[in-house]
Design brief:
This protein is α/β, with parallel strands linked by helices. The protein contains eight helices and eight strands.
C-alpha cells in the first residue's frame, strides 16, 4: 500500500517521523507537492543547531517560527556573535506576518528552547545583553554548559545571569527552567529572582555565589503558588571551595524573612512556620560531584543535603 493512500492524519505522523530521523530532511519536501505541504513547516519546527556557522546558514531559511530550538556549541565557540545571530533569527520570526497581514506578537511563543553553550563577557564579541531571549516566550528553557558533567565550569557568567532573569521576567508561560554551570552575581549586587508566576519546576546545578535569600523569597512569595519543585544540585554559597547550599540554610532564611512594607511582626512570627514548611515541601538540595580534594565534601553515598 502506498503512503499516499493513507488518511492525511496518518500521513502527517509518518512525515513528522521521517523529518526527525532523515539524514537530509530537506529531501522530503522534494517528493511531491503533497509532501511539500505537509513537511514544509515540520522542517523548521524543531531544528538542532550544532555550530555558529549553522546559525548563520539558518538565517537564510524562510522565517518560520520554530516550536522548539536546540543550540549546541563547543566550548571554543564563544565570543563569535552567536547570541547576536540568534537575536537576528528570532527577530525575523517576530516580524513575520500572518495570513491576515498582521505582525506576529512579540515575543513569539515556543514550546522549548535548549541552549548548550558558553557566553562571553565581552560586549564587542557578542550580545551580552541577551536580546535574543527578549524575543521569545518559551514554556521550557534549558541552558547548560558544553563541558562534561564532572567538569565544574561556568557557561553563564554573572552579567549574563542578571540579564537572563531580566528577560525571564517577561516570559508569561514559562513552566520549567533548567540552568547549570552558572555563576550568580556577588552578594553586594543584591540579586533577586523575578516572580515567574507560571513556573512549576526549577533546576539549578553547578552554581556559585548562589543567592539563598533570593530563593527563599521566590519560594515563599504568594505569586509562586504553582511552583512545586526546586532542585539545587552542587550549588555553593560562594566559590566551590566554600560551603554547599543546604535546605536547612534556606529554611533558616525563610523563617526570618518578611515583607518590609508595613511590617506586622506578629503576623511574620505566625507565618514563619508556614514558610519553612513551604521550603521543605518544595526544595531539594543534592550533591552529585566532588572535588578531588578540599571543599565541602559529603559522606560517601550522601545525595540529599538537609
Amino acid at each position: 500500500m502506498s503512503l499516499d493512500s493513507l488518511p492525511i492524519e496518518l500521513l502527517l505522523e509518518c512525515v513528522e517521523l521521517a523529518v526527525a530521523v532523515h539524514p537530509s530532511p530537506a529531501c522530503i519536501v522534494a517528493v511531491n507537492k503533497r509532501y511539500y505541504a505537509l513537511a514544509y513547516n515540520l522542517l523548521y519546527a524543531h531544528p538542532h543547531i550544532r555550530s555558529g556557522r549553522a546559525i548563520l546558514l539558518f538565517l537564510r531559511t524562510p522565517p518560520v517560527p520554530p516550536r522548539s530550538l536546540s543550540v549546541t556549541l563547543a566550548g571554543g565557540e564563544v565570543g563569535s556573535g552567536q547570541f547576536r545571530a540568534l537575536a537576528e533569527l528570532f527577530r525575523r520570526c517576530v516580524s513575520r506576518r500572518d495570513g491576515a497581514g498582521k505582525l506576529m506578537p512579540t515575543p513569539f511563543e515556543m514550546d522549548e528552547l535548549r541552549l548548550c553553550m558558553n557566553i562571553t563577557t565581552r560586549a564587542d564579541a557578542d550580545d551580552t545583553t541577551l536580546e535574543a531571549l527578549k524575543l521569545v516566550n518559551p514554556r521550557k528553557l534549558s541552558w547548560t554548559g558544553p563541558d562534561p558533567p564532572h567538569h565544574f565550569s561556568v557557561a553563564i557568567v554573572p552579567a549574563a545571569c542578571t540579564n537572563l532573569f531580566a528577560r525571564a521576567a517577561r516570559w508569561t508561560q514559562l513552566r520549567s527552567l533548567h540552568l547549570a554551570n552558572i555563576a550568580f552575581p556577588p552578594p553586594q549586587e543584591l540579586f533577586a529572582f523575578p516572580a515567574l508566576r507560571a513556573l512549576e519546576e526549577l533546576y539549578i546545578g553547578q552554581a556559585t555565589f548562589f543567592p539563598v535569600p533570593a530563593l527563599a523569597v521566590l519560594v515563599c512569595t504568594q505569586d509562586m503558588g504553582v511552583l512545586r519543585s526546586v532542585r539545587l544540585v552542587d550549588c555553593y554559597v560562594e566559590s566551590i571551595w566554600g560551603g554547599r547550599v543546604r535546605r536547612g540554610l534556606i529554611e533558616r532564611v525563610a523563617a526570618i524573612w518578611w515583607e518590609t512594607d508595613g511590617v506586622d511582626y506578629a503576623k511574620c512570627a505566625r507565618e514563619a512556620g508556614e514558610r519553612v514548611r513551604r521550603v521543605r515541601e518544595t526544595v531539594m538540595c543534592e550533591a552529585r560531584t566532588e572535588r578531588i580534594e578540599g571543599g565541602d565534601r559529603v559522606a560517601d553515598g550522601m545525595l540529599i543535603l538537609e
